[in-house]
Structure formats: C-alpha cells, structure tokens
Amino acid sequence: MLMRTDPFRELDRLAQQLMGPGTWSKPSAMPMDAYREGDEYVVAFDLPGVTADAIDIDVERNMLTVKAERRPVAKADDVQMELSERPLGVFSRQIVLADTLDTERIQADYDAGVLTLRIPIAERAKPRKISIGVGSGRKGISG
Questions:
Q1: Are 98 and 62 in contact (CB under 8 A)?
Q2: pLDDT tens digit sequence for 44-99
Q3: Fewer CB in 10 Å around end: N or C, the chain?
C-alpha cells in the first residue's frame, strides 16, 4: 500500500481534536467558491456527507447565512472505529451580499455534496442605454 506523506496532517488532526466539532453556537467554517456567470453570481459550498435536510439557508437584509450539520453515521454494536478524520458537527458561512443582487430570487441546488446558490443581479443594477432627446432641448433617461 502506498501512502502519501503530509507533514501537516498530524498538526491538522491535533487542531481538530483540540477545537472539537463545530456546534450551533460555534460552527466550523466550510470551503466555498464564488464567481460571476452571466447575469448572476454563483456560490458553491463543499458539504460532503451532509444530507439536504441538514442544510439551512437564510437571508436577512443583505446577509446570507448557510449552516449545515454533518452527523455521525449510525454503526452496529460490533463495529470498532480504526480511523476517523472526517469532521462532524456544524459548519457555517456568512456572506454580505451587495445591494445590486436580487435576494428575492436566489436558487439553491444540492448535488454530490456541493450546495450551489445562484443569485441574480437586480434589474436596476444592469447596464442600460440612455436616450437623448433632439430638438426639444430636454434630455430624458429611459430604463
């Protein structure tokens, strides 16, 4: 069997043991990616091993909060754990959303351990043409 050496693996394991699993009052962070795709922002969170019913998404004003809980897998009485590196507990991430995003139309999808949020850009924030009136001396803005 080949094993890859990682000099920080033991340090990471010790830090996880000292800090313990995340709780609802002190959750652990979750990794994410965020990017713009056309007229919407996409935010993807890694949540492997979390069931969809253990994920909670809230938006209050411009604060997006995602919380998830990875619960231990039920084991039979005769099972003895040899190695446990996958963190359990509560994970959370908060993101401040810009005023230019439409928080009323956020779409959430969960597939293969990845939670993907699609947040459209508000119509008022999209670029628009301004027409110029000729002859009347008045200029108007159309949107």
A1: yes
A2: 999 988 999 999 999 998 899 999 998 877 778 888 878 777 778 888 889 999 88
A3: N
Do 91 and 70 form a contact (C-beta atoms < 8 A)? yes
- Describe the strand order of the beta sheet including 107-111 as a list of residue ranges: 32-37, 40-46, 114-120, 107-111
Q: How confident is the model at residue 135 (pLDDT cuts 50, 70, 90)?
A: confident
End-to-end CA distance of the chain: 65
- Judge whether 126 and 39 are in contact, CB under 8 Å: yes
How far is the C-alpha of 112 from the C-alpha of 18, rounded, in Å? 30
User: Cβ(91)–Cβ(113) under 8 Å?
Assistant: no
Query: Which among 104, 94, 82 is positioned nearest to 43, based on CA atoms?
Result: 94
Report in angstroms the alpha-carbon separations of 111 from 54, 65, 114.
Answer: 14, 19, 5
